[in-house]
Amino acid sequence: MPYHQDLGGTRHVFADLRQVMAAASPHRSGDVLAGVAATSAEQRVAARLVLADLPLARFLTEAVVPYEADEVTRLIIDRHDTAAFAPIAHLTVGGFRDWLLANDGAAITAVAAGLTPEMVAAVSKLMRNQDLIAVAAKLRVITRFRGTIGLPGRLSVRLQPNHPTDDPAGIAAAILDGLLLGSGDAVIGINPAGDSVADAHNLLLLLDELRQAYAIPTQSCVLTHVTNTLQLIARGAPVDLCFQSIGGTEGTNRGFGIDLALLAEAQDATLALGRGTLGQDVMYFETGQGSALSAGAHHGVDQQTLEARAHGVARAFRPLLVNSVVGFIGPEYLYDGKQILRAALEDHCCGKLLGLPMGLDICYTNHAEADQNDMDAILTLAGVAGVNFIMGVPGADDIMLNYQSTSFHDALYLRDVLGLKPAPEFEAWLLANGITDAAGRLAASPARLALPGVLGG
After folding, report:
1. Which CATH superfamily is domain 143-432 in?
2. How far is CA 217 from the centre of its chain?
3. Which of 338, 351, 361, 403 lies closest to 136 in space, CA to CA?
4. pLDDT tens per residue across span 207-218
5. Domain-by-domain residue ranges, the chain?
6. Which CATH superfamily groups domain 3-137?
7. Binding site residues for adenosylcob(III)alamin, as ranges?
8. How crowded is residue 152: how many other Cβ atoms within 10 Å of its Cβ?
9. What is the mean pLDDT of residues 106-124?
10. Taking the CA atoms of the chain, what radius of gyration do you get in angstroms?
11. How many CA atoms lie within 13 A of 95 on its CB side?
């Protein structure tokens, strides 16, 4: 169905909903690379005017990626909750924006199952940055495994102790650094340098030995491919969480070597281990704008809408953690600090609207037009927006993945200026071990934690 809008004597015509969505998106390098971006600021305004007047129900009858050709579209449509959608079914996209700003978190959460990823992507295109922050700040998505993540007034941290050779001593030293600086309550998660199942098994044993030796109320994860995790489970490895990168189309996920059936199999296998003490939210997903274009599977859809569709995949598996690795893919997709900031706020807000426990890897690659000051700004705004967790990387410099992220010190800064605390179970552990004082600040003489079998403990 063609759409059009007249502006200043010019008629702007859009062939279908996919083109409206793409042209309405804020300018970003990935959409230009894909050939779907608005050709002018005027065309972008025209597309937004069209989008604002579209009924939300239109997204249930016009798919941006064909239903017959894509299992992600089928997942989205087949699992749509019409009862949850009913209170907002009469709204346009513009009216939905006003509704989100006017209602509280409970009302928004009540309709989450009735929202499709395309609906939340559409409304985000009409929102200023402050709107994205204001709406997301109302929403709390709480998950549990050995700790409780996402409570109001809390900020969790993934302790990311990556090493270019998976050296156990180097990894253990980074873990010790992070723990003594109050990080690790979201997960202690290692990106392995290689794809060896045996090496991943050894890393899991290291993490589990450390966790049990000091009764740390957290969970561990080696962020290997889901098929490797299934092998690790079969070998009896101490798997807490099952990780996988996911995308917003069937073709993107095929490029990752997965499909929905494989994710369901991995979730069932991980749940069967029953390792959680407070809950059994066992999945950990990472997403990122640009992955579908990178895989040649974007179907002419803008990258932010596809990111929201990746969130739609995550929603089906009740994850403990979801994070957008927002600047990792590079400047071909998000060119500079301004584009990375906008994407971070979009990803966080859209994920929360869909009911996901959203975190952010606030990051950039060294060839992007960005620096650590940009990350400071994104970090602060994400904290105000109520992000569930961020990354804690030694010195903010991941020496294995070769990108810049956020550090343990950055997490301390954000907790301090916004009055945030770690997950309650982890907060109590930090206090009991003399790492923090009763006020939650680092102790003047922090505890010494010896890492068994690694650093002479």
Report:
1. Aldolase class I (3.20.20.70)
2. 22
3. 351
4. 999 999 999 999
5. 3-137, 143-432
6. lyase (1.10.220.70)
7. 192, 244, 294, 400
8. 10
9. 98
10. 22
11. 11
Looking at residue 444, its pLDDT comes to: 78
Residue type, 168: P
How far are the Cα atoms of 57, 85, 92, 103, 384 from residue 99, in angstroms, in the given order?
15, 13, 10, 6, 21
Cβ atoms of 65 and 302 within 8 Å: the answer is no
Q: What is the pLDDT of residues 295-322, one digit of tens each?
A: 999 999 999 999 999 999 999 999 999 9
H helix or E strand, kind and range, residue 109: helix 105-110
What's the confidence (pLDDT) of residue 176? 95
Cross-strand pairs, 157: 390
> Quick check: helix, strand or coil at residue 14?
strand
Binding residues, as ranges, are 158-160, 191-192, 244, 286, 294, 361, 400
Q: CA 328 to CA 7: how far, in whole Å?
A: 37
pLDDT at 456: 43
Contact 250, 256 (CB under 8 A): no
Residue found under tokens 């997960």: 187
Binding residues for substrate: 158-160, 191, 286, 361
Residues 6+ apart with CB under 8 A from 314: 246, 283, 285, 287, 322, 351, 356
* 3's tokens: 């759409």
